Every structure is written in C-alpha cells, then in structure tokens.
Amino acid sequence: MNLKEQKVALWLCGLAVLGTLAILLIVPRVEANQAALLGRGDYALTGTDGSAFTQDSLKGAPSAVFFGFTHCPEVCPTTMGDIATWKEDLPQSQDLRVFFVSVDPERDTPDLLQQYVSWVPGVTGVTGSPKETQNAIDAFRVYAERIDFSEGSYTMDHSAYVMLFDADGLFVDVIPYQADYDMAEAKLRNLLEGNPEGLGAKLPRDPIGWLCYRVQAALS
Known about the structure:
By secondary structure, this protein is of the alpha+beta class. The protein has helices at 3-25, 27-36, 75-89, 110-117, 130-140, 181-192, 207-219, and strands at residues 45-47, 52-53, 63-68, 97-102, 123-127, 144-148, 154-158, 162-165, 171-175. Strand 1 and strand 2 form a beta hairpin.
C-alpha cells in the first residue's frame, strides 16, 4: 500500500470512527428527546372559552389532551364519559384541565364544539383552521385520517387515547381507550401528585442532549 492509499484508508477509518461516535452519542439522545417534544410545535388553535391553544397552554398546571371530533360515533362519546367519571370519582381530578382537540375542523365550529364538551366540567374544546389542526396533530404525533364514503359523507379515523402532561408541559403518560378504571385512576393520581413515579419525558441535562433537543425543537 503506497502513501496515498494509506492516507485514504486513514481518512475512511476516521469517518467510520466519527460515524460510530455519532450513533453512540447522538442517536440515543435524539430518541430520548422524542417524548419531551410531544405537544411542542408551531400551532395556534382556539379554545371554546376564547383562549388561544398553543404549546404554552400545556404549562402551568397538569392537563389531559384528547384528539377527537363531534360526529364520532363511539370512541369520543365513550372517552368523554370516562373523563366525566374520573372527575366525579377522583377529587384531585376535578381541577384537571382537559383539552378536546378536534381533528375535524371543517365541521367542528367553536359553537358546536362548545355544545359537545359543555356537559363535562373542566373540558375545553379546541379547533381551528385545517392547517393549524394538522400542525397540532404533528406536534402531538397522533393519528388522524379522513375516511370518505361513496355518498359524499365522511368520518375521521383517529388515535383513541388520552395524553397526560405535567405542569411544565412535559408528557407523562397515556390512558388507553376504555382503560380499566383502576389503571386510569392510578395514572391520574400520579400526574396530579407531581409524577412521583418519574414517568414520561425528561429534559436533557447534558450539553449534547440539550443541543439535540434544541435542534429537534427548531425542526418540529
């Protein structure tokens, strides 16, 4: 092997080492940051109480976020009923903020959404333009898809879980659709008691992790 070939080999070896370091140092941090970025993004919707719903709306007090729509035949009415039960049976959850974010902005006007959520205390309906709605769907990384029928009507297929966030706006846990009552109660107690179980997202504390977090947030 001549000198030129040796330099090329060393250069390739250096690239391999850098690639390995990137995988070992950066990839785990990027993956860990995914949970911390839930709910973070450039979206601006409107609540049925007249307030703006942005990423900052998750801060200040524990909250629950559910994506659905008023024409939902089963999942949304069932979940609203579950939320009402949680609020009635668990004293701490009476002050829990709940945001019902519509995935069907074409039909869910603020007035219609207000009628839909008004029977459960503490639930704020959230809607907005199709663009801002999609931005929110992307920020919370939930699923929502329009399903068209032959006669011209349509429905929405969507994620069916309730997302829980702490007072700092960090994701803590999810309550699955039709979750066992004891499971839901335990998850809510943990949230409202300040997440003593240490579940969910954590902000990075090391420089590399924080840099990755800032880059990921800027790109979201």
